[in-house]
Amino acid sequence: SKKSHLRSKKNLGITAITLATRAAMEGGLHHEIAYTLSDLYIQDLEELPDIKTVDAFLEQALSDFAERVRKNKQQKYSKPINMCLNYIFTHLYEDITLPSLAILVDMHPNYLSSLFKKEVGISIADYIQSTKIDEAKSLLTFTDYSLLKISTILNFHDQSYFTKVFKKYTGITPKKYKNSTSEWS
Fold it and tell me: Given a cut of 60, is residue 129 above it in pLDDT?
């Protein structure tokens, strides 16, 4: 809307909620729950009086979708695997190793590794890398951090290794990814 900044913000919010609904369903949230949440959030959004309230509401709504997907996914795994997944998620900016995870869950590293692969479907190392690359994509999209800073804070040994791993999971380099996301803005 050219006349109302609040209306524009609400329209963007509706779009964000719609995209979050789709992503939540792809993440395993039951369709009926996702659609019900979407409807309620959009109805609540329409009642908000100002931009600041809209921004705060959207942050809470999108976080709720993400948290519901996280909880839904965790229900599929055993307690030690959930502990590992939670640790990886909350320590993403640190160096995460199989031995440290094995100590966390009081298991032999080899046993933990095979249990993780059996339940999650990929190795612990691949899961950690994939999760770090997802975070890198967010940082590339929503910050102006350099590739060097992103690779450093996500604990990659060097920028060229980060670029190699990023390309392995996305099919493009971080620089191309950054340029493609900036074209949408």
Answer: yes
